[in-house]
Amino acid sequence: MLRLLRKINLQKSDGENSATFLAYAIGEFVLVFLGILIALQVDNWNQNRKERELERILLTEMLTNLKGDLEDIEYNMRLQRHFQNSNQVVLDFLQNELPWHDSLGRHFKRLAGRALFDVNTSAYEKARESVIELIAEIETELD
Question: Where are the domains of the chain?
Answer without folding.
Answer: 2-142
